[in-house]
Design brief:
Layout: E1 5-9, E2 12-13, H1 20-35, E3 43-46, H2 48-56, H3 65-80, E4 83-84, E5 90-91, E6 93-99, E7 109-113, H4 119-127, H5 130-149, H6 153-167, H7 177-195, H8 203-217, H9 221-229, E8 238-244, E9 255-260, E10 272-277, H10 281-286, E11 292-293, H11 296-302, H12 309-312, H13 314-331, E12 335-342, E13 345-353, H14 358-370, H15 376-382, H16 389-392, E14 395-396, E15 403-407, E16 409-412, E17 415-421, H17 424-432, E18 437-441, H18 449-454, E19 457-460, H19 468-476, E20 480-482, E21 487-490, E22 495-498, E23 501-504, E24 508-512, E25 517-520, E26 525-526, H20 532-544, E27 548-552, H21 556-564, E28 570-574, H22 584-593, H23 597-622, E29 626-630, H24 644-654, H25 658-667, H26 680-685, H27 687-708, E30 713-718, H28 724-745, E31 752-757, H29 760-764, H30 766-769, E32 775-778, H31 780-788, H32 796-804, H33 821-835, E33 840-843, H34 851-860, E34 864-867, H35 872-884
Parallel strand pairs: 4-5, 17-18, 18-19, 19-20, 27-28, 27-34, 28-29, 29-30, 30-31, 31-32, 32-33, 33-34
Antiparallel strand pairs: 1-2, 1-3, 3-8, 6-7, 6-8, 9-10, 9-12, 10-11, 12-13, 14-26, 15-25, 16-20, 17-24, 21-22, 22-23, 24-25
Bound molecules: phosphoenolpyruvate and magnesium ion.
Magnesium ion (MG) is lined by residues 758, 779, 781-782.
């Protein structure tokens, strides 16, 4: 015979904490607490298998269920010394749902079940409190009608209000036993009118009605939506817990409360919670009365005058504190607890692992390990890598008021406030004048880099999670909200419109790049704390991970930040932004627009010393760690002049007319630049560009080695390769340039030449390409774009809907699409290594900082991931968890 029902109580239980799949979280923990000898009201759990059976069999229960429930109820009756439905001495129970994981949306709780017109008299007599009995009965009718029979709560609240008006009183507590009797009659009438049937008087009908409602609620729309959003399988089902009632509303020596064994927002090792005297659990949640503090210290801190539980019920509080200690030791984690005190006796109603902020998670994990309750590995597994984001950037003060204007994509975490400005130049000017600014653009381009750098935060109306704004902001560690579609920016008029409101240049705004919120005015922010617990946990993580973590950085500032965050090298140093700075851009434009190789070489000669200086600095900061430098990638038109004065400047330098220059510039126009003349295709057409860059790299490497005596390890990376031929041709050029520099300088440095795998063809042809490569770095931004055929700049508009419809589980530009893009990474890895078993493999797309993608990279066997500086700690922790899993 299948066991469907599990009993608990009186220091024993048929279930255990590790039976969550069968008993649900609540049921399993009630059983565990009972076994631990904690005061748990006796009860029974109907297993999740009954839920599955129920839905597999046209909403019928297994035939043995009724008998098993009856038997378990008998055990409760014996334990409590009362009988279900007995008019003289009635047993009352609560009925609650309980899935494996807590699941809002489902039927929650029915209390005081077992009351009817007869048993209420018995309760009145035994409790010697008529008012309590009738109040309990009306609460039961109200709850049962609402959650089981579907008669809305407000009908009953209206009746109560009406009655209070008639009596001329304000509070529920002003109502007497007789008032509740009148209201009970009115409630029953209301239910009868609404349903055409009387309120059930048979206690067994009541019980099975509530059990059915719990199972029924597994499939209601709200619950389904929640499951979908949280990846909870339909098959899990819910359990039902039926438990003897204990009453926190039996007078001044009774109470009910909720508590955490440590502070869930700071992680401080102090009890945290609230309680209410003479109340039932729902009163705490409903917020009708303001709950009081649990401890004296908390009360004093809050400046509250109502006594804390520690002061008003010192003895019971002492018992509760020892239960907290026992539970934490037993579960080896911070617990979230519900309890009731009935006439001076403590009862435990629930315990579970408490939800907590990232800050608290860190502190609790480190302190539990320090106390020897858990080991370092467990501590490392306890902190969710993605949650570290909250800690690495300034965050909004949760207590500060905010006026939310709109919401965009949470493109780069951190919160910032400042004056709204609409151009990069203005951002720079204002910043120089000492003002904090938020740069607001419809979208950003490489030309805006200086403004993005100067700004405290970046807001764009268009663009997705790998748009220019998002990628660059993450790299710089600037908070960014991208794709805030409700915003219209009129840069000329220096105004931004959104939902009928206006923000003018200079108006203060705040953005939260972790939530995507845009707020009007200045919202206070809090600074991150990177020493202490954070440093300790990261150190532990590093001892367990095998995957290396590098960074994507292309300025000395980013490089320095990344080292502080523990980067073990640079996995991607993009060189394009270096071309935009100050006077360089003129030389760059001259190069692009000159018609002859000689003209281009002349312009490149001007760029060489500047580029060399860039690399020298970065090599110095990385001190011996590998640095992967990617040769120029974006289409040339990105560098073209736009304004008339820019055209004049370049025409002057080239000695041609503005008209001619404009014609030439026009010829560079491409319909689809992402798939156009970019990446190594530029190197093939204009080898002198890559030669200049290679020279700058090797000259810088030689200079730093000579000066510091430390080895420099440059890795020259060729972008957007589709064929082996492209790579071998360009490799030869790089090698030739290296040889020249080493002869000129009489000094040789070790270096590597490799490629990015960012096109499907390159992944498929990896075996061949590996012949000419010392390393591969998977450029999963472009690989996602080209494998799925969706534009990284335009896809945000429909991806959101795709994710909602579950076509993609997540935005594939954020978390690697393992089935498609990931498969190409696997193929590239296997085929590359089939040619060169020691081929060095990394990833440098945005996915390198996404925990799930990092775990995927570990499984595939890559050597390293590379991500923006501020995500380095996240990747380190994710890599450790991948190794420990
Ligand atoms: C990539 O494509 O994944 C990559 C890292 O290069 P970029 O984002 O510069 O195109
Ligand atoms: Mg790319």
């Amino acid at each position: 015979m299948t066991k469907w029902v599990y009993s608990f109580g009186d220091g024993a239980a048929e279930g255990r904490a590790d039976m969550k799949n069968l008993l649900g979280g609540k049921g399993a923990n009630l059983a565990e607490m009972a076994s631990l000898g904690l005061p748990v009201p006796p009860g029974l759990t109907i297993s999740t298998e009954v839920c599955t059976y129920y839905y597999d069999n046209e909403r019928q229960y297994p035939s043995e269920l009724k008998d098993q429930v009856a038997e378990a109820i008998k055990a409760i009756e014996t334990s409590v010394g009362a009988t279900f439905g007995d008019p003289e001495n009635p047993l009352l129970v609560s009925v609650r749902s309980g899935a494996r994981v807590s699941m809002p949306g489902m039927m929650d709780t029915v209390l005081n079940l077992g009351l009817n017109d007869q048993t209420v008299e018995g309760l009145a007599k035994n409790s010697e409190n008529e008012r309590f009995a009738w109040d309990s009965y009306r609460r039961f009718i109200q709850m049962y009608s609402d959650v089981v029979l579907g008669v809305d709560h407000y009908h009953f609240e209206e009746l109560i209000d009406l009655h209070k008006d008639e009596k001329g009183v304000d509070l529920d507590t002003d109502l007497t036993a007789d008032d509740w009797k009148v209201l009970v009659a009115a409630f029953k009438k209301k239910t009868q009118e609404t349903l055409g049937e009387p309120f059930p008087q048979d206690v067994h009908d009541q019980l099975w009605g509530a059990i059915g409602a719990v199972f029924g609620s597994w499939r209601i729309e709200r619950a389904k939506v929640y499951r979908k959003l949280n990846n909870i399988p339909e098959e899990w089902g819910t359990a039902v817990n039926v438990q003897a009632m204990v009453f926190g509303n039996m007078g001044e020596t009774s109470a009910t409360g909720v508590a955490f064994t440590r502070d869930p927002s700071t992680g401080e090792n102090e009890y945290y919670g609230e309680y209410l005297i003479n109340a039932q659990g729902e009163d705490v949640v409903a917020g009708i009365r303001t709950p009081q503090n649990l401890t004296k210290a908390a009360r004093e801190k809050a400046g509250a005058k109502d006594l804390s539980m520690e002061e008003s019920m010192p003895e019971v509080f002492g018992q509760l504190a020892s239960v907290f200690e026992k539970l934490e030791k037993h579960y080896k984690d911070m617990q979230d607890i519900e309890f009731t005190v009935q006439r001076g006796k403590l009862w435990m109603l629930q315990t579970r692992s408490g939800k907590r902020t990232a800050k608290a998670a860190l502190k609790i994990a480190v302190e539990l390990a320090a106390d020897g309750l858990i080991d370092e590995k467990t501590a490392v597994m306890r902190v969710e890598p993605g949650a570290l984001d909250q800690l690495l950037h300034p965050t909004l003060d949760p207590d500060a008021p905010r006026d939310v204007l709109t919401r965009g994509l949470p493109a780069s975490p951190g919160a910032a406030h400042g004056a709204a400005v609409f151009t990069a130049d203005e951002a720079e000017e204002w910043a120089k004048a000492g003002k904090d600014v938020i740069l607001c653009r419809t979208e950003t381009s490489p030309e805006d880099i200086h403004g993005m750098h100067a700004a405290k935060g970046i807001l764009t109306a268009r663009g997705g999670m790998t748009s220019h704004a998002a990628v660059v902001a993450r790299g710089m560690g600037r908070p960014c909200v991208s794709g805030a579609g409700a915003i219209r920016i009129d840069a000329k008029a220096e105004i931004m419109h959104c939902m009928g409101r206006e923000i003018k240049k200079g108006d203060l705004i705040t953005i939260d790049g972790a939530s995507g919120e845009v707020m009007i005015g200045e919202v206070k922010t809090l600074q991150p704390e990177l020493a202490g617990d954070f440093a300790t946990l990261m150190e532990w993580a590093d001892t367990y991970r095998t995957l290396k973590v590098r960074t994507n950085a292309d300025t000395p500032a980013d490089t320095t930040t990344a080292r502080e965050f523990g980067a073990e090298g640079i996995g991607l140093c993009r060189t394009e932004h270096m071309f935009f700075e100050g006077e360089r851009i003129v030389a760059v434009r001259q190069m692009i627009l000159s018609e002859t190789e000689a003209g281009r070489r002349e312009a490149l000669a001007k760029l060489l010393p500047m580029q060399r200086a860039d690399f020298t600095e970065i090599f110095k900061i990385m001190r011996g760690l590998p640095v992967t430098i990617r040769l120029l990638d974006p289409p040339l038109h990105e560098f073209l002049p736009r304004e008339d004065d820019e055209f004049e400047q370049v025409a002057g330098a080239l000695g041609i007319s503005v008209e001619k220059l404009k014609r030439q510039a026009n010829e560079l126009h491409e319909f689809n630049p992402m798939l156009g003349h970019r990446g190594c295709r530029l190197g093939i057409s204009y080898p002198e560009i890559y030669e200049m860059q290679a020279r700058a790299i090797f000259e810088a490497a030689v200079a730093v080695e000579k000066e510091s005596g430390e080895t420099v390890v440059p890795e020259v990376m060729i972008p957007l390769v589709a064929t082996e031929k492209e790579l071998s041709m360009l490799r030869q050029r790089v090698e030739a340039e290296a040889a020249k520099v080493f002869t000129e300088q009489s000094h040789t440095v070790e270096y590597m030449v490799g490629t990015m795998i960012e096109l499907p063809r390159a992944a498929l042809q990896a075996a061949k390409i590996a012949q000419s490569a010392d390393f591969f770095s998977f450029g999963t931004n472009d690989l996602t774009q080209t494998a799925i055929g969706i534009s990284r700049d335009d896809a945000a508009r429909f991806l959101d809907e795709y994710v909602k419809l579950d076509i993609f589980a997540q935005d594939p530009f954020v978390s690697i699409d393992q089935e498609g893009v990931g498969e190409l990474v696997k193929i590239g890895t296997e085929r590359g290594r089939s040619t060169k078993p020691d081929l060095k493999l990394g990833i440098c797309g945005e996915h390198g900082g996404d925990p799930a993608s990092v775990m995927f990279c570990h499984d595939v066997g890559l050597d390293y991931v590379s991500c923006s500086p501020f995500r380095v700690p996240i990747a380190r922790l994710a890599a450790a968890q991948a190794a420990l899993r």
